[in-house]
Write a structure and sequence with these properties.
Elements lengths: L1 H8 L1 H32 L1 H4 L1 H16 L32 E4 L5 H9 L8 E5 L2 E3 L1 E2 L5 E5 L9 H24 L3 E6 L2 H10 L5 E3 L5
Length: 212
Amino acid sequence: MGIGFCVLAAPEIALGAVIVLGVVVIGVAIKEALDAYELRHAYPEESGTSRGTKVASREAEAQREPKLKPEPAAQDRQPPVPPAPVDRTGRASCEPVPVPHAGEDDPHNECADKFPPNRYPGMDVLVGGVRFDALQVGVRKLWEIKTHRFDLYSDFVRDREIEKEIKQLEAERRAAAACGYQFVVGVSTQIHKDALLQADQSLRVVVTGCRR
């Protein structure tokens, strides 16, 4: 023990021992780094756990954020409808209520005012919660006026137009009948009248002769 201590106590030997010891320490550090490198490549899913956790948390947070509904397109917005008066039972009133014409179609509005003739010129009328083009003077008769150029449509467009009109006219006729009114459809041409009657013979259709 004494000999070993003295040998190591010599300056030149002590310096060499320190150098050797330093090399050993560096070698150990390099080996540990290599082992860690091999471990990361052997188990890549473990090395990316923390990063994946952050990404997943961001995605979860994004999913929790409320999604805003897109604004409806302008053509999807319906024009406001005047509120229909109600009777004591809470149902739409059968009392006729004049309201401004729905559209700015001057030829159509002129025909609706003059042909029946309209009890309220310049106005539509609400009856039973449904809008009609005119209430005829002196009688309980409601009118739906059609002035579009039906004769110029192709056969395909005519068929689609008649399908759409029949649905509208049936709803208007039911509302008129429920309130004790007659219901008449005014069209500009005989061809349009024939097409409507072919689809529903129970309709009352009159040729107004109104032109656009």
